Each structure stands twice: as C-alpha cells, then as structure tokens.
Amino acid sequence: MKYRESQRDKELRKRFSNDYGHLLLRKIILKEGTLRGLDALDIAFQYPITAIAGKNGSGKSTILALACCAYHNGKTGFKLPKRKNSYYTFSDFFIQHYEEIPPGGVVIEYHIAHNNWKKTPSFPDGVGIGFQRRRKKKGGKWNDYADRVRKNVVFLGIERIVPHSERSQSRSYSRAFSDTSPKGWEDKVKDAVGFVLGRTYSKFRYLEHSKYSLPIVQVGDIVYSGFNMGAGENALFEIFSTIYACGGSLLVMDEIELGLHAEAQRRFIERLKDVCYETHTQVICTTHSREIFDCLPYDARFFVERVNGKSKITEGISSDFAFAKLAAVPGAEVELMVEDDVAKAILLLCVPSEMRSRVKITVIGSSTALARQLAAIYIRGETLPALAVFDGDQFGKERDNLKHARSMCEKTKEDFDEWYISRINYLPGETWPEAWLVQRASECVSSLSPVVSCDENALIDILEYGLQAGKHNEFYEIAKQLGIERDMCLQLVTMVVVNNFQDHFKPLMSHIQKSLQEAG
C-alpha cells in the first residue's frame, strides 16, 4: 500500500531539514576503500528515523558502525554501562584476529548539519551542511578522532534483549540494587512503554548499583523488576530511557524490532516518532521486519545488497519487494515490477487469467527504485525476464529514470540503454494511476453505479471529491464517501474501468505477452 505521510511525519521532516542546532547526520559516503565487505556507500538521511534492510552479510551492521563513528564527545558525555569512553572509534566495531589483514586506504565522508562550522566563504555564518573526513592509510591509524564534531552517540546492539536474569552483572548484584534519585523523565518512559505494550504502569523507576541499573515497575498491585520482564519489555525501557537521558543524540540500533510482536512494532514506531520530535533524537537502525518498513516514509527505507560482488543500496523500496528478496521466494515465468499497490491492482485485473498465472507482480516502491532494480537484474545477468511497468506520469521522465538505472552500473555496457528500453512500459494515461482511474470512472458512471450501490448523480460528486483529495489520497476519500474500505473501493473501481477501457491496455498486454514468449 502506498505510504501516506501523517501530520507527525510532515512535522518531523520539516524540522529535520531545517535543524542545524542539533548536529544531525545528513549523509555518509565511503569515498575510498573497503570495510568488512562494504565497498560502496552513499546514503543520505532526510528523515529522523532511518531503517536499513538486507540479507546477512550485505553490510547493514557496517553502516551502523560508520554512523557511530561520525562524532566525538567530551569526558562528561553520556555513555552506557561498561563503556570506557563516551564516544566510539572504529576499533569498537572493526575488531580483527592477528591473521586478518586490517583495512587500509579508506576515506569516509560525513555530512553534518551544523550551526557552528568554521566561518568560510561557503559558510559565512558558520551555518550549513558541511563535511568531515576520516582516513586510514595502509598500515596506519585513523586520523585524529578529537577533530570530530561533538555529540552524544549511543549504540544499542542485540544484547539489549538479554533478560536481567541472564546478565551476569545483574545476577551478581541482585540484592545490591537500591533506589536512586529520580531523573525526571521516568513518567515519560513509563507512558511510552505502556502505549507500545497496551499496559498501564502506575510506577516506573531504576534501581542502581555501581554503574549498573535495573528497571522496576508497578502494574496495579503487582511490583516486578527487570528480572521478571519479557525481553521486549526490558528493551523498550532501555531504549526510551536512553533517549530521554541524552536527548538530542544519535541513537543507533541493530535489529530495532527485537523482542516485539507485529502490533507492538507498529505502536513502537508511532511513539518513537513522537519522542524523536520531542527530544530532537535521530535514529538509524537495521531491521528484518516488514512492519517497521511499513511504518516509515519511503525515503527513510534503504535496502542493501550485493550485486555482482559489489555493494548496492537502494532508497524508497517497498516492503513487499524488500522482504520477498529476503525470503528468496521463487518467481514465475515473468516478473512485472510496479511502483505501488494501485499499479498492482490494475495489472491483476487487466492481465488475462491465462497470462496472470504465469507472472509475478512485485511492488518495488518509487520510480527511481524501479529503474535501479531493473538495472540490478541486468548486472546480475538474471535469466528470468522482467518488465518494469512505470506509472503513466513517468513517461515524460524516461531519461531521468534511465539515468538512475545507469547510476546502478559502475561501467555501463554499450547495449544497456537498448536492453533497458526493451524492458520498460507504462500504465495508461499521463498522470498517476489513481487520478487516471477516477477520471475514467467518471466516464462510465452508469457501469460503476450498480457495482458500488450508489446513485449516479451522487457518484459523480463523490468521484469529483476524490480528485480534489490530492495525489494518492483519491481512493481514501471516495471510500469514505461510499462507506466502504479503501482497498475494496480501489478494486471495484479498477474492475469497472479496466472492463470499459480495455483498448488502453493493448500495448502493455502485447509487451507482457512477448516477454512470456521469450520466457517459454
């Protein structure tokens, strides 16, 4: 389903793009060299929460490590228990056996939105997005860490879900933990975790001993500590407590969904957005969860993969495509790749059943992601025929999409452009598919009226309301007016339009038929 940005999403995006006071990380570029198999990286952050998916060994954890090393910190900066320093260095993540060859010839560029850069002609007021470089020559050390921009960075790995009953230090100090003075954010953490888990906590606080802490809560008349919490509950208290303890930080998390069931994951991201807005926190995480992807805007999702032995990262990818790739689901004779669920609904109804049983329709995400995935197929030399079906409004942007596809290839072969053009097609119309469907529906109201059980004159007005609702919101408005679910509304309108305008699909059907013949 097409992601609909909420008001909170819009507020987060607007403030993130205009915030120079909280030293937000805006881009990481691996300019030279290779780190733990990651040989190429250019990732831009446009939203305060970023999720990265990919198969094991694709480079997800390496990207998290690079993010952690973007900043320095003072001695009084926040640090987790057992950490010696309040900042991270590459040696925290890139640990090697003596038989391994250490990386060398590496250059990493960090772009940071800052309001106190050294004043130059480029930054006369010291405000803007500048960059710093970290270098490591062969056989040498990384250049001076102390030169980095100063900011709290916290890395939460998968050990956060280890129950206190299985943590040696917690077991050792089980009787030594005692009350400490309140931090002031306990109620906020209590409410956040309660929202995610659907539970009402009347009290929450941390007990402490030395540098270790133990959560303790009260639900009704029952009091229990972290020794008797589930893994997800324990992790949530640690995550939200960390955010409030060092607000305005960069929080880096491995497998953000660990310990949480699907509904809790969705509610977690919902509350995380609110807390990030409140505290100016930036989150970069990895995930293997479709629910996490579904809860974030397209430009906050990245998919990392190895294509022909090289690292490739794609922005704006759909959860359907990303997690089908992770599941390695075998394909049909021809794969039809589309931008969103509306395009998929159109193809499912316009492709004849004898052809439909032989194709797989995959939602990719943005038009850019669609072009780049087609290029990835070319690079891998996959034998399964694939056809990228763009929305009608992309016809005039064919050169731009071809450019995106070329950028996926380090060295574009002479036949690439011809290959690419032979494997793209378009949905009917010169606009996005929702608008095209509603416009055509207005021309066959007499056919649609009995299907949706609505008077023709009233239906004309409802379709007009839909067109005025804005891009990608058309069927939400029409469904609301008709008193049915959005997906049912989309299916019914699409069915009638496809039946009445079959001629509009002939070029596309011919292309699909040709692809099936090639596959056969």
TrEMBL record:
Keywords: ATP-binding, Nucleotide-binding. Residues 46-308 form the AAA+ ATPase domain. GO terms for molecular function: ATP binding. Gene3D superfamilies: P-loop containing nucleotide triphosphate hydrolases. The keyword Signal does not apply. The keyword Nucleotide-binding applies. SMART domains: AAA. Pfam families: AAA_21, AAA_23. InterPro entries: AAA+_ATPase (IPR003593), ATPase_AAA_core (IPR003959), Bact_Antivir_Def_Nuclease (IPR051396), P-loop_NTPase (IPR027417), Rad50/SbcC_AAA (IPR038729). PANTHER family: ATP/GTP PHOSPHATASE (PTHR43581), ATP_GTP PHOSPHATASE (PTHR43581:SF4). This is ATP-binding protein. It comes from Methylomonas albis.
